[in-house]
Amino acid sequence: MIYFDNAATTFRKPESVINAAVSAMQYLGANPGRSGHSLSLRAGMLVYSTRKKLAKLLGAGDAERIVFSLNCTQALNTAILGTVVGGGNVVTTTMEHNSVLRPLFELQRAGRITVSIAEPNERGVVTADAIERALTPRTYLVAVNHVSNVTGAVAPIDEIGRLCRKRNLRLLVDGAQSVGYGDIDMNEQNIDFLAVAPHKGLHALQGVGVLAIGPHVDVRPTFFGGTGTLSESVFQPRELPESLESGTLPTPAIAALNAAITHHEKTRAETRRRLRELSAYTLEKLASVRGIKIYTAPDTYNGIVSFNIANLGSMDACNILSAQYDIAVRGGLHCAPLIHRYLGTLKSGMIRVSLSADNTFPEVDFFLRAVRELAETEAIGRM
Q1: What is the mean pLDDT of residues 115-138?
Q2: How far is CA 60 from its chain centroid?
Q3: Is 213 helix (H, G, I), strand (E, B) or coil?
Q4: Mean of the pLDDT values across residues 329-357?
Q5: Across the strands, what pairs with 265?
Q6: Domain extents for the chain?
Q7: 2, 127, 156, 208: most buried, per Cβ within 10 A?
Q8: Which string of DSSP letters, residue by residue, matches 23-50?
Q9: 98, exposed or middle or buried, with CB in 10 Å at 0-12, 13-18, 19+?
Q10: Which residue(s) pair with 196 in the sheet?
Q11: Cβ 370 vs Cβ 309: under 8 Å
Q12: What does each C-alpha distance from 62 to 65, 121, 164, 214, 355 come to in angstroms?
């Protein structure tokens, strides 16, 4: 199979990542932070080591402000639901994933907040100016997708962060498609909350997400249970990270993430160079195919290439690419309805290719031949 669905999850994991997960299952089967015996303590040390690595990678400051979750979706929900200001306003964007839109619009439907939407400019990018125009006197939070999982558009986080700091607003960044593919520094970029999907750009395992929380901000618990601390109390502790980490942590996935960060630090420069080259090549060659409409933002080379083939539905095209060519790509709406509504693709969806540095130029060439054949077949069918 040619796997071009890395924005959903990276398929090929480094050997060191796989070995770390297996080793944790073999030798660290205890529950970290729940007992005083040596096995539990070793597991706890591994977890803390991973927090420290993440804090350094993300510019997050204290390791205690790195919170593990089930996935990036839960991390985003934790930040949104745990910071609600009754009667307040949240500004978000057309580019957002349903992991942000659904909790926000549920809060709006319940009458607890209002939601304002900032739209992209002619280049498909939501600017700081667009965010500023959407602000209201009641705005307390800005929620921004760093890299669109649909078009690959990159939000100007530095400018948006400066705006939020100037206006004394909290900034939540969805880093699902950016962490591991580009640099991010919460302190330098004035980010208060950063949600991470380690199984994507960092090539870690599914089963763990991350919410990094900046200094001087608080998140109320929305999920309650055992934490291994203050067990004499029936109330949730308020200290991070325990206040937001009820239940057993996924130690094998955290061990794999620890190894993934080490691998990322060693290979970062080469990975980014190769991904940029593959992306530029794919976009250039795809643009020459008759009957193709490309939606990827101009000069965007982060692995996401979205397009459609004439009047062929995106799901139909993806099914053909899978069944006849053994190519895995993503069709449909990508859990991001507002950008599809904005671009007029709610009915058709889009075909999304999401490359990894593990992909090859011969794989791209084979994919391009397949797309050309589909486009030619579609053109003949319309005659």
Answers
A1: 97
A2: 17
A3: strand
A4: 97
A5: none
A6: 2-9+268-381, 15-262
A7: 208
A8: HHHHH--SPTTS-SSHHHHHHHHHHHHH
A9: middle
A10: 210
A11: no
A12: 6, 36, 22, 8, 33
Q: Is residue 94 a contact partner of residue 144, using CB atoms and an 8 Å limit? A: no
Residue pLDDT, tens place only, 205-218: 999 999 999 999 99
CATH class of segment(s) 15-262: alpha beta
Tell me which H or E stretch contains 113. strand 113-118
Report pLDDT for 377: 82
**pTM more than 0.85:** yes
Query: Cβ distance 207 to 24 under 8 Å?
Result: no
Q: Do 290 and 379 meet the contact criterion of CB atoms below 8 Å apart?
A: yes
Asked whether the domain spanning 15-262 has the same topology as the one spanning 2-9+268-381, the reply is no
Tokens of 364: 């791209």
β pairing state of 170-174 and 193-196: parallel
Q: How would you write 238-299 as a 3-class SS string?
A: CCCCHHHCCCCCCHHHHHHHHHHHHHHHHHHHHHHHHHHHHHHHHHHHHHCCCCEEECCCCC
Paired tokens of 164: 């939020």
Which residues does residue 10 pair with via DSSP β-bridges, in sequence order? none
**Two tokens at 42?**
């070793």
Mention every residue, 6+ apart, whose C-beta is less than 8 A from residue 211: 66, 67, 69, 75, 76, 78, 79, 193, 194, 195, 196, 219, 244
Q: 87: helix, coil or strand?
A: coil
pLDDT score recorded for residue 383: 43
- Domain 2-9+268-381 class? alpha beta
Average pLDDT estimate for 45-53: 97
Query: Which stretch of DSSP H or E encloses residue 18?
Result: helix 15-27
Dihedral pair phi/psi, residue 52, rounded to 5°: -60, -40
Question: Within the chain, what is the greatest distance between any pair of CA atoms?
Answer: 76
Q: Does residue 200 have a pLDDT over 90?
A: yes
Q: What is the chain's mean pLDDT, rounded?
A: 96
pLDDT tens digit sequence for 138-188:
999 999 999 999 999 999 999 999 999 999 999 999 999 999 999 999 999
